[in-house]
């Protein structure tokens, strides 16, 4: 689900060029949105040649797809606190921090807006969230093994249930995205899980 602001990517010159271009693309998206994402402007921001950007990415959609892939790779790994509620609280607070971050919030709004009208952008966004859900699903599977949740619980549905109310606040209601909201989201998902709501039919 979420990219930790300020992450440093390792690698040589090729990796540095990619990092610079993706950082520039993220800034441009946050400032102007997907509709005005221009590869030439991104190249200028990144301090690289236009031909490099056009040759490697070719389109704004391909650049957004790579940006989302990079964000998924660079996101904070799941934590292991030994209890489901603490693990899911950590997940909820990571989501909250990302959506409340000034730059990241604008970037996510731009990408979600792009996904609503561009199939390729939507596919890239879906892949991003699939990676993040797979990262956090094991904490639920471990909880099932410890007896905290019923056998047959769908781990991915539990993880989705944590972030869903936070995204609702972010995109729809405008209610505060505070730490209390993150705690409630995690605790509600745990309570529903214990009640068997997420057991596969």
Task: Give an overview of the whole structure.
The chain has 201 residues and is mostly helical. The chain has two domains: 13-70, Orthogonal Bundle (Arc Repressor Mutant, subunit A); 72-194, Tetracycline Repressor, domain 2, CATH 1.10.357. The protein has nine helices and no strands. The longest helix is centred in the middle third of the chain and has 28 residues, at 119-146. The chain is elongated, with a radius of gyration of 18 Å. Residues 1-9 have low confidence and may be disordered. InterPro entries: Homeodomain-like_sf, HTH-type_TetR-like_transc_reg, HTH_TetR, Tet_transcr_reg_TetR-rel_C_sf, TetR_C. This is DNA-binding transcriptional regulator, AcrR family. Keywords: DNA-binding, Transcription, Transcription regulation. It comes from Streptomyces indicus.
Rg, rounded, reads: 18 Å
Tell me the distance between the termini.
26 Å
CATH topology of the largest domain: Tetracycline Repressor, domain 2
- Principal-axes shape call: elongated
Largest sheet: none
Give me the oligomer status: single chain
Helix-residue proportion: over 70%
What is the β-strand count? 0
What are the secondary-structure elements, in order, as H or E? HHHHHHHHH
| Class from secondary-structure proportions | mainly alpha
- Number of folding domains? 2
């Amino acid at each position: 689900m979420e990219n930790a602001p300020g992450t440093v990517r390792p690698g040589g010159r090729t990796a540095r060029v990619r990092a610079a271009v993706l950082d520039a693309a993220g800034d441009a998206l946050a400032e102007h949105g997907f509709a005005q994402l221009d590869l030439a402007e991104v190249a200028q921001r990144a301090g690289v040649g236009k031909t490099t950007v056009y040759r490697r990415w070719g389109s704004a959609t391909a650049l957004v797809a790579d940006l989302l892939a990079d964000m998924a790779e660079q996101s904070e790994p799941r934590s292991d606190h030994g209890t489901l509620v603490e693990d899911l609280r950590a997940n909820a607070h990571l989501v909250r921090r990302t959506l409340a971050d000034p730059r990241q919030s604008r970037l996510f709004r731009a990408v979600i807006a792009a996904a609503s009208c561009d199939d390729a952008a939507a596919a890239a966004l879906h892949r991003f969230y699939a990676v993040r859900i797979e990262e956090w699903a094991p904490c639920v599977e471990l909880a099932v093994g410890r007896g905290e949740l019923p056998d047959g619980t769908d781990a991915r549905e539990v993880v989705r249930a944590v972030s869903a109310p936070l995204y609702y606040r972010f995109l729809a209601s405008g209610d505060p995205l505070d730490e209390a909201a993150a705690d409630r989201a995690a605790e509600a998902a745990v309570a529903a899980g214990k009640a068997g709501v997420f057991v596969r039919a």
